[in-house]
User: Fold this.
Amino acid sequence: MAKAIFIQSSHSKYDDQPGRAYHFPKRQYLSRVEQTVGDWVIFYAGKRGGGLGYHAVQKVLQVIDDPEDEAQAYALLDPGSELSFEQNVPRWRDDLGPYETGLPKSRGNNTSAVRIISESDFATILQAGLEARSVPDALPRAKDPAATTGFSDAPEPFAHPASIRETVLSQRAFRDRSFARQVKQAYGGRCSISGLELRNGGGRPEVEAAHIVPVAKNGPDTVRNGMALSGTVHWMFDRGLLSISDSNEILVARDAVEDQTLDRLIVPDRRLIEPRDPILRPHPAYLKWHREHVFKG
Assistant:
């Protein structure tokens, strides 16, 4: 097994299915991709892919041939293993060179869509990408007793880069905290359905981070599979009393909630309040899953 970088682009000619499958030409990359089966890969998007840099990590399950093109293949990904980075990581560090040891600034391996990387490089990129944000919107609702004053929390229990292993990526508690920080930050600490932005005395948002496709159903820990919701609205969403249409209309299950209650819980125009960054909007596939498997409309 080996860890690698998979390059993605929003303008790619390949049939990539984010969170599900990575499409690639067999002649150039089959031997490399096969090495990653059962291991973790980091996704990178350059300027043509939205300029995200290193932005997510996920586990590869298997490689299969493309049934419609014998020259192509798919790396099938474990959907529930996907974890987006709290901070996008650029390819180059000021005065320190590339995160990928020995990567040239141009040509050669720099242009490869699949690059095998060392455990050390993987750990260093992961450390930078999963560094916890201490901005107010990303803080937990309750202050950690070990935290210092102000908005800062106690240091995240994260290992030194040289010792980071996949056990860290598999820890539910770690993933939950990271997911919550990312979603709250994306929505500015505001409930995306009620519009409420409540904060406690320490400036911490009372909003919760809700999975659209739940973890129990192999939903990923990515912002696009999340929404910031107040406690009551979160409860209603998880139980299928509320959902979201493809056009961001807030859907309400028939005869589930009185109109007077809805007027207090939902924004007047009944449209989802989206994240500040358009690229973090809920993915249509996740919203569709919720409508088909959870919503009681």
